[in-house]
């Protein structure tokens, strides 16, 4: 299956990658190869991507799911140990105008 | 041209489990930011989700209560999107195999709003936008949600109101959520399109996101109807878009259009195994469902022949209905019990929350001992009301307040004497009554009530007073 430069641009935008026209051209070739490889794998397992789960084919019985019992949460300092916190929050650059 | 409104709802309901859907952190509302968090619900690398059985059970309950079929083999999927309210950059949800499908919510008219699907998923964190920052609190992240997706069967803001109210009631009755819209435990996305009246073809829709009040839903729908009708009658085309509703202006505005609609790249969640639910478990949950709100309302009106207006006041509160039914089961008449709840008990419960809890200090069975005296004509309604108020106040039984003497009531001679006293003591009220103010007579009842501690029979007293003045 061939992939167009337009599709590459859409994927790049969704993946937050900055691709110029030249990179897009390069990539459309590489992508074709990657997809061909995925097609080969699909052919081996005999199905489309939605059958991915069938490869493992494992199920969990309802009775083995987790019971609804509260466990202690992490200490706030620990939760925030990798960030410079603002009043107990995780701060990021403002995401709305 | 006249246009017909076509609307479908996506309703998110937070499930009332003790813990989050994939970890043991508490789901308690509020709390200091990021104190109900762990490696799983903050999306730390390597942390693995473990599905909460109760969340699955509650979702099945919700499905059965809305007449859905249950998919006993179900799995979860990743919905990818990049926004800071999701620490993993994906939400674990369900895509092609939702837990529940093909149900309906019935309105009082008998119209059925079809439910396309109900699936389980995790809630996102809460964002606060301040100055140059967005501050994130992941306490809500991972709280179990069900998303209830309706078919586009809603055709007016009034129907939308009833649909949301009915859904809210059902979820409260079956105990899966408190559905407090103001706290965000129930939120609606409203899809709206218009089509020429009589046409079968659906128009282009817009979606108003995250509505958290029924009044706002109605307002937003009216506004959006007007906006789309104006475009269409001007020969224009409605653009598919996601909208937001501004509570202060009462207007909707475009958040994003179809051009930048997101590609969620759904794929099966590899960290959670396919869940296999035995049919016997589904049957057990089905058998544990209580009588549902609309069935109850219809039974109250059609079978118990209760006043429809009063029945409507009580059926919204399950605990009040349970109390009512306990009193009736103990032998009290449904009619008098309901009148006392609406007239005396509800007046002591100020907030919706109080009515919801219906924590009134005495049991329905205790109240029945009083109501049976009223049913049997041993006491009159006024005395019953006053005694019930005292019982509610103290938590004591009826025997504390009503003696054998009280039950004999009052003979006519004594009542006539007191009526004369009441007339003499309230000349102004008597004059007003004579001048045509019917309500002035209430002042005389007040006097009698105080003088007899409620023992006077109001109906008899009215006859006597009217004959005297």
Structural features:
heterodimer; A: Histone, subunit A; 4 helices; 2 strands; B: 469 residues; alpha+beta; Arc Repressor Mutant, subunit A; 3 domains; three-stranded antiparallel beta sheet; elongated
List the total number of helices of chain A. Answer: 4
Question: What gyration radius of chain B follows from the Cα positions, in whole Å?
Answer: 28 Å
What portion of residues of chain A belong to β-strands?
5-15%
Large-scale geometry of chain A: flat
Overall average residue pLDDT of chain A: 81
- Please name the two chains that share the biggest interface, counting residues whose Cβ lies under 8 Å from a Cβ on the partner chain: A-B, 37 and 53 residues
- Biggest β-sheet: strands ordered side by side in the sheet of chain B: 2-6-7-10-1-11-12-13-14
Helix content of chain A: 40-55%
Uncertain stretches of chain B:
none
Total beta strands of chain B: 16
Q: Calculate Rg of chain A over CA atoms.
A: 22 Å
List the helices and strands and how they pair.
The complex is a heterodimer of chains A (97) and B (469).
Chain A: H1 5-14, H2 21-45, H3 52-56, E1 59-61, H4 76-79, E2 90-93
Helix pairs in contact in A: 1-2
Chain B: E1 3-14, H1 53-65, E2 69-70, E3 73-74, E4 77-80, E5 90-93, E6 100-106, E7 112-122, E8 126-130, E9 133-137, E10 144-150, H2 157-173, E11 186-196, E12 206-211, H3 214-233, E13 241-246, E14 251-257, E15 267-268, E16 274-276, H4 279-287, H5 293-303, H6 308-315, H7 318-329, H8 334-345, H9 352-357, H10 364-375, H11 381-394, H12 404-407, H13 412-425, H14 427-434, H15 442-452, H16 458-468
Parallel strand pairs in B: 12-13
Antiparallel strand pairs in B: 1-10, 1-11, 2-6, 3-16, 4-5, 4-15, 6-7, 7-10, 8-9, 11-12, 13-14
Helix pairs in contact in B: 2-3, 5-6, 6-8, 7-8, 7-10, 8-11, 10-11, 13-15, 13-16
């Amino acid at each position: 299956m061939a992939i167009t430069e337009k599709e590459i641009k859409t994927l790049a935008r969704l993946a937050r990658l900055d691709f110029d026209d030249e990179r897009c051209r390069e990539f459309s070739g590489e992508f074709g190869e990657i997809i061909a490889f995925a097609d080969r794998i699909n052919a081996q397992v005999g199905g489309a991507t939605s059958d991915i789960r069938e490869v493992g084919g494992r199920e969990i019985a309802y009775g083995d799911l987790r019971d609804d019992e509260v466990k202690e949460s992490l200490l706030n300092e620990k939760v925030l140990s990798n960030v410079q916190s603002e009043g107990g929050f995780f701060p990021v650059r403002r995401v709305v105008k | 041209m006249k246009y017909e409104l076509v609307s479908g709802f996506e309703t998110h309901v937070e499930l009332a489990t003790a813990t989050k859907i994939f970890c043991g952190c508490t789901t308690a509302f509020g709390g200091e930011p990021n104190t109900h968090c762990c490696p799983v619900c903050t999306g730390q690398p390597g942390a693995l989700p473990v599905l909460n059985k109760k969340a699955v059970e509650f979702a099945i309950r919700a499905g059965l209560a809305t007449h859905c079929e249950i998919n006993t083999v179900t799995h979860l999927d990743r919905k990818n999107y990049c926004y800071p309210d999701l620490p993993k950059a994906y939400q674990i949800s369900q895509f092609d195999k939702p837990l529940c499908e093909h149900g309906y919510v019935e309105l009082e008219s008998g119209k059925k709003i079809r439910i396309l699907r109900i699936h389980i998923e995790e809630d996102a964190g809460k964002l606060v936008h301040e100055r140059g920052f967005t501050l994130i609190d992941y306490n809500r992240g991972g709280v179990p949600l069900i998303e209830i997706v309706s078919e586009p069967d809603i055709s007016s803001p009034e129907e939308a109101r009833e649909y949301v109210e009915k859904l809210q009631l059902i979820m409260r009755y079956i105990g899966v959520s408190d559905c407090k819209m103001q706290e965000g435990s129930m939120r609606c996305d409203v899809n709206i399109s218009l089509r020429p009246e009589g046409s079968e073809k659906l128009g282009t829709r817009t979606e108003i996101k995250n509505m958290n009040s029924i009044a706002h839903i109605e307002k937003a729908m009216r506004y959006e109807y007007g906006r789309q009708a104006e475009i269409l009658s001007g020969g224009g085309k409605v653009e598919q878009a996601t909208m937001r509703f501004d509570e202060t202006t009462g207007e909707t505005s475009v958040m994003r259009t179809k051009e930048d609609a997101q590609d969620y790249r759904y794929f099966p969640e590899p960290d959670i195994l396919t869940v296999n639910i035995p049919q016997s478990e589904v049957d057990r949950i089905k058998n544990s469902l209580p009588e549902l709100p609309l069935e109850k309302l219809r039974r109250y009106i059609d079978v118990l022949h209760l006043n429809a207006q009063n029945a409507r006041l009580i059926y919204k509160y399950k605990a009040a209905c349970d109390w009512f039914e306990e009193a009736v089961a103990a032998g009290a008449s449904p009619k008098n019990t309901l009148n006392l709840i609406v007239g005396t008990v509800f007046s002591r419960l100020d907030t919706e929350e109080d009515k919801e809890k219906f924590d009134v200090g005495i049991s329905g069975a205790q109240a029945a001992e009083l109501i049976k005296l009223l049913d049997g004509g041993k006491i009159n309604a006024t005395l019953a009301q006053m005694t019930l108020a005292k019982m509610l106040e103290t938590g004591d039984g009826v025997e504390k307040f009503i003696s054998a003497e009280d039950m004999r009531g009052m003979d006519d001679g004594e009542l006539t004497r007191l009526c004369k006293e009441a007339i003499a003591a309230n000349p102004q009220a008597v004059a007003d009554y004579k001048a045509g103010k019917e309500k002035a007579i209430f002042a005389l009842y007040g006097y009698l009530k105080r003088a007899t501690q409620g023992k006077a029979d109001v109906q008899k007293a009215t006859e006597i007073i009217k004959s005297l003045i």
